[in-house]
User: Which sequence fits this backbone?
């Protein structure tokens, strides 16, 4: 009887753990180092990588994020297949090997795609506001409130602290305290 009860408790707790969704704070904690690394490699601010990913993927809880590691809703050149609730799903969205790969592809789009290539020369890696406005102005999202929503995420969760503005000693102190 004790064995049966123990198995039931373990199964129930494992189901609860697998059903848990990412929170904004858990998403940030899990992926902030990847975003900072991308920033150092490409010049795209870590706050932009995280803020846009959090907005586009619902902090990694969207179907695309869960099944394809696609944090930004990037479409691919060929169809992708995945299974959701035991049903085969065909999609035009790109599949990535990891969240980091998705972050890298987003940064590549921001630095190499014709519509966005000038942003890295126009804005520093700590001018997240300029980046958001530039990304929206150049057609990343058609929703007029997209930029405001991304900026709200960046400011609410202080993602700008990851952008490492060397002249911002206060920001570095706040980052060290968090």
Assistant:
């Amino acid at each position: 009887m004790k064995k049966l009860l123990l198995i039931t408790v373990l199964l129930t707790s494992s189901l609860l753990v697998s059903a848990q969704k990412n929170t904004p704070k858990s998403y940030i904690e899990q992926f902030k180092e990847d975003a900072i690394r991308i920033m150092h490699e490409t010049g795209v601010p870590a706050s932009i990588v995280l803020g846009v990913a959090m907005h586009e993927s619902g902090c990694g809880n969207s179907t695309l994020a869960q099944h394809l590691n696609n944090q930004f809703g990037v479409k691919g050149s060929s169809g992708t297949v995945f299974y959701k609730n035991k049903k085969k799903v065909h999609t035009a969205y790109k599949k990535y090997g990891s969240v980091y790969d998705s972050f890298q592809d987003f940064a590549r789009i921001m630095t190499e795609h014709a519509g966005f290539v000038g942003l890295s020369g126009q804005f520093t890696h700590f001018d997240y506001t300029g980046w958001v406005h530039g990304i929206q102005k150049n057609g990343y999202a058609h929703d007029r409130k997209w930029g405001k929503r991304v900026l709200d995420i960046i400011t609410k969760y202080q993602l700008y602290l990851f952008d490492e503005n060397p002249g911002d000693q206060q920001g570095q102190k706040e980052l060290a305290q968090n």
The radius of gyration is 19 Å. Confidence is low (pLDDT under 50) at residues 4-18, 169-173.
